[in-house]
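[Automated response] Your request has been received and processed.

Submitted sequence:
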Amino acid sequence: MRKNTVWFEVEENESISDCLDRMREKGYAAVGRKEEPLFEEINGQPVPIRQIVKFKGSKLSE
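Generated structure:
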């Protein structure tokens, strides 16, 4: 049985619309979204660097 949902992460140098286009090209539609901060430790303190955005893709019917 094939997997019907896959998480796609917006790459560092990619726009959200580019990621959605990439999903569509692979036959998936966005059905969910989540964001989480990415931290780096600087001088012993966690500092947020960027936001990681992920889209849950559901396989389009063929």
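Summary generated for your ticket: The chain has one domain: 5-59. Strands lie at 5-9, 28-42, 45-59.
If you did not submit this request, please reply to this message.
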